[in-house]
Amino acid sequence: MTGLSVALALSATCAFSALAADPKPDAVLKNKSIEARIFLDDGIKADAALAADCLTEGKKWLDKNAAEAAASRKEDPQFFKNGGWDFERKYSIRSVVADRYVSILRNDYMDTHGAHPNSDVNTILWDRTANKRISIRPFFTETADGGPAMKAMVKAVIASLKAEKKKRDTSETATDEWFKGVEPSLLKIGAVTLAPSTEAGMSSGLSFHYPPYAVGPYAEGEYVAFVPWETLKPYLTAEGARVFGGARPKGDAEAQ
Fold first, then answer.
1. What are phi and psi of 142, to 5 degrees?
2. Can you spell out the DSSP letters for 191-227?
3. Helices (H), the chain
4. Which of 111, 53, 62 is nearest to 86 (CA)?
5. pTM of the shown model
6. How far apart are CA 165 and CA 130, in angstroms?
7. H or E element: which one contains 103?
8. CB 226: neighbour CB atoms within 10 A?
9. Is the pLDDT of residue 169 over 80?
10. Per-residue pLDDT tens for 106-126?
11. 254 near 168, Cβ under 8 Å?
12. What distance in Å separates the CA atoms of residue 227 and residue 96, rounded to the nearest whole number?
């Protein structure tokens, strides 16, 4: 076999391997207006109730965007000459705490043929015991809008964001204008997960996830703010004290 033949054979083998390694979507919607996919990670698929919950939500998202794409194509068909919109949603487990509370990241990719594709991030907190979504309320003595706990969280979130911006050399956008959307309210402070911990089964604190544009220009990408549990200690319920402890694992910040 010639050198060229060997190179071509290797190239074909690598391409086949890459294709074989690509995960198969758990739901797909494809037509002239859109191609959209839903992916669940293996940890989610191992929990039937959680997988069903995510898939039900994901399919509604597919249908909603398909309807919008069809309407846009009908109104402006010239924007679909090179194909339809491209959407993708991935559900992945970030942490499992006390073998009960599962934090899930929901990452969206959206290409509607604009100046650039967009992305979004949201989160789900799943209670395995109750088999349902919950909020972080059970871990805190009070979570009233503008209350002490929420104000403490916002203060810590902004301090974390400023530190991250300094690290990225983007301190010029560490301003009140960019942080005005981070409000002392569970519904407005940001999408939250329980951060993993160096202590097994525990959480080292709260991570707040922000998509592009939320706390900085699009070019800066996503941000994750970390609030250590010690900051929240005065506001913890008995259940909160049971699940929070330890330190943030080395490398967790880089993994976000």
1. -155, 145
2. EEEEEP-SSTT-B-EEEEEE-TTTSS-GGG--EEEEE
3. 3-21, 42-45, 48-75, 148-168, 176-179, 229-232, 238-243, 252-255
4. 111
5. 0.89
6. 39
7. strand 101-111
8. 21
9. yes
10. 999 999 998 889 999 999 999
11. no
12. 18
